[in-house]
Amino acid sequence: MKSNASFFRFASACFLAVFIPAIAAAFEGKVEMTMTSSGSAMPMTYFIKGTHMRIEMAVPPDKHNKDGSTFVSLMDLEKHELTMLMPEEKMYMVHQISDETVEKAKNKKAETEFKATGRKEKIAGIEAEEYVGQSDKKLTEVWVTKELGEFMLANQGKGGKKGAQNSAWAKFAEQGGFFALRVIQRAKEGAPVDFQLEVSKVEKGSQADKLFVPPDDYKKFEMPSMGDMMKGMIPGH
Questions:
Q1: Is residue 174 domain-resident?
Q2: How many domains does the chain contain in total?
Q3: Could you tell me the residue range of the domain that residue 74 belongs to?
Q4: pLDDT tens digits, the chain, 237 residues: what are they?
């Protein structure tokens, strides 16, 4: 497989995310957004239908991957499943999140209080309201709406570290039933922006069922068990 290393780095980050069944069936459609961190921009597209979500991320080129990559993950929030697609190999891998993990995440309280500033603005045609608080030890502005239902973002940490889904701002949005349309983080008021997430386009409308399942010509990839790995290392097995 040509992209095993890249895939598993990405998969590991996603598997560290807390998986929460928080999509509201009120919204069906497509949401385009861009996450910018350390000068690098990563376009992301969410396809949402009931308790199903498809996330496509365009990872920019770097020294390890000159052409860049597109990662696709499928979430079934009713079954607590995360499916990673590997387009280059035409394979997919399914990760099951335990009920215990889901309940623990749902019951965890936000560590930071976010206060409404009274400011409102239309972002991608949707009216949003600003809240401000501390998240990841940074001053954080979160512009939110309830028009698109609610869901937690997939884990998109910097360098595979603590990701967006584990951030205080994401927990605040999830517990308030909000959809974050814009997030801006900086060290302090007036300082340069360290991190920004912003929705650029929202399309409401019916989404095809095939978007939320692996393509028919993809094969399921199974991680080998420790026993199978050991057999391969022992002569005669």
A1: yes
A2: 1
A3: 4-222
A4: 444 444 444 443 443 343 343 444 468 899 999 988 877 888 989 898 988 889 898 877 766 666 667 889 998 888 888 899 988 889 999 988 777 766 666 665 556 689 999 999 999 999 999 999 998 889 999 999 988 876 555 433 333 334 454 678 888 887 888 889 999 999 999 999 999 999 999 999 999 999 999 999 999 988 665 555 455 555 555
Nearest residue to 46 via CA among 204, 219, 160, 167 = 204
Does 128 reside within a domain?
yes
* Assigned domain for 236 exists: no
CA separation for the pair 56, 32 (Å, rounded)? 10
194 is a domain residue = yes
The Cα 197–Cα 221 span in angstroms is: 32
Q: How far is CA 31 from the centre of its chain?
A: 12
> What is the pTM (predicted TM-score) of this model?
0.75
- Report the candidate in 212, 168, 158, 204 with the shortest Cα–Cα distance to residue 35: 158
Residue at token pair 């000068």: 39
Q: Which residues make beta-bridge pairs with 139?
A: 134, 186
Distance CA(214)–CA(219), nearest Å, equals 9
Closest CA to 8 of 89, 107, 97, 123: 89
Q: Which CATH number does the domain housing residue 147 bear?
A: 2.50.20.10
For residue 153, give the DSSP letter.
P
